[in-house]
Known about the structure:
globular
Amino acid sequence: MFIRLHMITSDAANAERFDGIRRIQAWTKWNPTKDDLPLEDGPENPRVKIIDMDPETGEIIPGAKLVTPTRNKYSYFDFGKKGNYNWAGVRQVSLFTTVMRVLDLFENKDALGRRLKWAFGDQLTVYARAGKKANASYQRKTGSLQFFYFTPENKPDTTIHLADSPDIVAHEAGHAVLDAIAPDLYTSRNPQTRAIHEAVADLTATLFAFEMDDLGSRILESTDGRLDTANEFGWIGETFGTELREQTGDTYLRTLYNENSIDPGSPNYINSKEAHHISTVMSGAVFAGFIDEFERRKRIRAERGKITTFSASGKTLWEVGGFVRRALFRGLDYLPPGDVNFIDLARAMVATDTISFPKAKDSNFRQFLISNCIDRGIGSKPEHLEYQPIIGEDPATRANLVKLATDLEYAANFAEENRDFLRLPTTAKFTVTSLFKTQKKDVHSGGIKKEREEIVLKVRWSENETGRSLWGINRFPVRRGTTLVIDLNTKRTIIRLTNNPDYASDDGHAEMLASAVRKEALFHSEASSHAAIM
């Protein structure tokens, strides 16, 4: 069963730049599972509900109608015909489609290989017009995405609807999905932990842009297939930023094209603890690695096929986007729970990429990622980020993996009996925060497909750490954790990631955990919102 959905793929800024660009694109391959049904007017299904309010009265207005043809054709939501669109209906359908498409990018076997559950409940509510102000947000407390609208001061007859900007919608959907994957990030006081939320949301918006056929083609055409000059791919909130910051000359809220660093000795040091600002260090490192791998593969494809680099750019963009998406999204699944830093995310991405593609010919992206992270102060040596294979005895080989995959009590006993292996302090009270199975798929050189089942086990504990605050020297609670990934095919642990500093010698944390960057960031945390696009 397939359902035809539609989404806005080009905001007003791109529509103005690329004459005649297609602003609405169909997604014809949505094949909902039984858990995604029933599908109702709105649109609405058990996972996502769109609500639209009349800007004059504040009353909820009827949503787009579901049309189910009597013959063997796709069902779809009606928002009028081309040239006579009901734009409120377009907006409603596009919001639903974008959220479901972002979910699909995360959940399919090429990425996480598991179904996610929202951090707040069963259904995400998406407000198409939540009110009049220049903002958009994800809120766990209300289980909602909220998109507002505003009138620029210099354009009193113009209304900017943030729900009409696909990058902003994908960004906020990325927040909701990340909260489902790693809920500890949302509640952390550590600026780098909070900044991971913003970095991932921005990268989600960028990776989502690669799904827009017409937009991608237009951008590559305008740069002759060069991604390093295709600024639009790395701009976040272009229409929003242009209207709000016309006086500064900026045409975006943030850009992934940057050389920002958390190294205080760098000329590009980000001297801020605000999450949105420092997030550009991590997102910039991942995006720079993407560009490096794109240019490498494009050149090889052009030489082998005896075609121009422009002709090779389209397929290469899709291919490398898959590599980056796989490493990023799976890396999030493997993050230790608790308060984590950029180095934790980088190491998780490198670890999953190494497991998926042990041969360099299948992925050089991780080497580019390591290099770009080090350039930005995320570690100083490659070995701080490289994959650490499990050496010595592995308790997974003795465990009842059927019970371990489903029984929280058995998992807790397994962790208690193997504290040292899980990097647990001797007497610390711990909690099993996550226990789930995944089914992942990798495609290697020559189109060879390999699938594997995994068990992911996460444990978390709290410790007090001494540091400076506005009130002098104090002790502060810090949440630490460990993630184990067990391959059900080999019945062995393939990944162990921890942020326990007592194991820094073999887990590469000594430098980051002892650095002034971490100390100052952790104990001088400024209030910042990872829920807002601004």
